[in-house]
Amino acid sequence: MRSIRKLGSAFFIRIGAALYVGAFMWGPAWAGQPLPWQMTFQQPASPIMEDVVALNDYLLIVISAVAFFVLGLLGFVMWRFNAHRNPTPATWSHNTPLEILWTVIPVLILMTLAVPSFRLLYRQDHIPPADLTIKVEGHQWYWSYTYPDFDIAFDSTMVESDQLKVDQPRLLTADSPVVVPVGRVVRVQLTADDVLHSWAVPALGVRTDTVPGRLNETWFEVKTPGVYYGYCAELCGARHAYMPVVVEAVSQEQFESWIAEHKVAVAPTGQQESRIRFSWRERAQT
Ligand SMILES: [Cu+2]
Question: How far does the centroid of ligand 1 lie from the alpha carbon of residue 193, in Å?
């Protein structure tokens, strides 16, 4: 009895700790990267990730209810129909109404799980009219990014631990982040030039394989400015753990000046200005 009480208090301490860490973690200052002792998702920063978290919470409620119901039923059967309490067992073996019920009810429960799940899957797969396209190419072991609308292309490699600045997370910091404007739909086209990789940013709800010879597509829209860290999520070789993804979401003005700054190196000035405006105007019409 004492050990059960001990177990019980350990359980509540754990739940309390999880709630504490959860509350701590969900503060806005901590968006976009994993934390020590983190037990749930990162703070969602895109509509898709919000839906993922909502679906997860909903599933957790349903599966907990099912698990507790089955556990209760088992306990009741063990207590009520054990050999002492029920020495002469009943001899019937079929009950049609009961069998229909225990088939139909689980089917209905599965439907209530399948509908929101498929809805989310469709939403992830169906790319809305995009404001910006970024092409991602996985290499052993770094990423290269292209902004075809603005003729910008660069490689992004991990910053080694001894070269990190203050507040830069180890193994998650890359030298050149992907810069995107907040509140804009970003279409991401992904491929690889050697082996399978996977471009994953947990807070944005993005995780799509990059496959040599194929083009995959995904999308995201960042709701709040910030730096969002991700990684390669497909075992791709010796330095698989050392190809982080960094997405920096900035305001529209900051994004445009970033574009202008990076564009200078590859194209004559003046040209990018008109292309930026053209790109945004095109979006406004759709
Ligand atoms: Cu990889």
Answer: 11
Distance CA 217, CA 210 (A): 9
Of 199, 236, 234, whose CA–CA distance to 220 is shortest? Answer: 199
Q: Ligand 1 centre from 258 Cα, in Å?
A: 27
Q: What's the CATH superfamily of 132-285?
A: Cupredoxins -  blue copper proteins (2.60.40.420)
Q: How far is the CA of 74 from the centre of ligand 1 (A)?
A: 46
| 47-126 maps to CATH 1.10.287.90 | yes
Equal fold, 47-126 vs 132-285:
no
- Show the beta-strand stretches assigned E in the chain: 132-139, 142-147, 152-156, 178-181, 186-192, 197-201, 206-210, 216-220, 226-232, 245-250
To the question of pTM greater than 0.70 for the whole model, the response is yes
Give me ligand 1 centre to Cα 204, in Å. Answer: 19
Q: Which residues have a Cβ under 8 Å from the Cβ of 100 and sit 6 or more positions away? A: none
* Tokens linked to 181: 């404007």
Distance (Å) from CA 164 to ligand 1 centroid: 21
| d(CA 6, ligand 1 centre) in Å | 45
Measured in Å, residue 156 CA sits from the centre of ligand 1 at 13
Domain chopping of the chain, boundaries:
1-25+36-40, 47-126, 132-285
Distance 205 CA to ligand 1 centre (A): 18
Residue 241 C-alpha to ligand 1 middle, in angstroms? 8
Ligand 1 centroid vs 21 CA: distance in angstroms?
A: 30
Report CA(196)–ligand 1 centroid distance (Å): 7
- pLDDT tens string, the chain, 286 residues long: the values are 344 444 444 444 444 444 444 444 444 444 588 888 888 899 999 999 999 999 999 999 999 999 999 999 999 999 999 999 999 988 888 999 999 999 999 999 999 999 999 999 999 999 999 999 999 999 999 999 999 988 899 999 999 999 998 888 999 999 999 999 999 999 999 999 999 999 999 999 999 999 999 999 999 999 999 999 999 999 999 999 999 999 999 999 999 999 988 875 544 444 444 444 434 444 444 4
